[in-house]
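Entry type: protein chain
Record version: 2
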Amino acid sequence: MDTPLIPIGLALIMMTVGLSVRLSDFRALFHQLRAVGAGLIAQIVFLPIIALTVALVFKLDAVYSIGLIILASAPGGISSNLLTVLARGKTALSISLTILTNLVAFLTIPTILSIAFLVFRSSGLVEASGSDLYALPFGETALKVLAISALPLSIGMAFCHFLPTLSSRIEGPAKFVASAIFAAIVFNSFYSEWNSIMAHWSTVGPAVIALNVAAIGSALFFSRLFKLNAQQALTIAIECGLQNVALALVISQFLGDGRFMVPSSIYALVMNVSVLILIAIGNRLSEEKDHSVAKER
């Protein structure tokens, strides 16, 4: 897994995401500020807190606890927009949340991880001899995330804005290539850490499932708190439940210990199960709404 091809692949994925972003997607922000605010609070603020709580409740080893927090600090999943369409959610809201969380990831990820490392060291959960393993160079981490996430995303967006015809022409093939790269990154992580995944499945697996369920639950909670409609709530639930696993795996690689990748590798499977359930719920709600409208007519 320790290869420069993985970060390069992720950068290409993020550039592909940018190719599909239009300025109109950002104009939609002003029409749903409450929904955007609820989504950002649920994902950026509370999801890492949930991950830390889950790690403590399940009494995970420090290395897997940090891996869980790396996963929780990752922004929204790059395929969440398509899945939101399938769930009949609010596509503009999904795109807005995905772009915003990925653009600020170079600040939020090192900040969250720095706090997490401080908590673990001060609590005595990390042995002094292993403290170097959990030392986080903030500036270096921020620059790396910027280089593989926000920067290529911005390049893709600029390409879409200034060369819209060419962007539309290559968007389809680029998405196919990006999907293949994403699958390769996840498969590579499974292959390289398979022994660790199997050895710690009984402890790490339930914690990862709990994080996924809690992430979706917190999204629904904040949606209710902000008085959002069902479609908006469903969209935020998909955004919070579907993390950018590829980015989490690359950050784990940057930190120099493959065991950090184990929670993210497991989550890649878990999140797809939960999002299928959300898609089914979204379609059921839409059918009921259409049926109700038809009856009123």
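Comment: Residues 75 and 101 are 5 Å apart (CA to CA).
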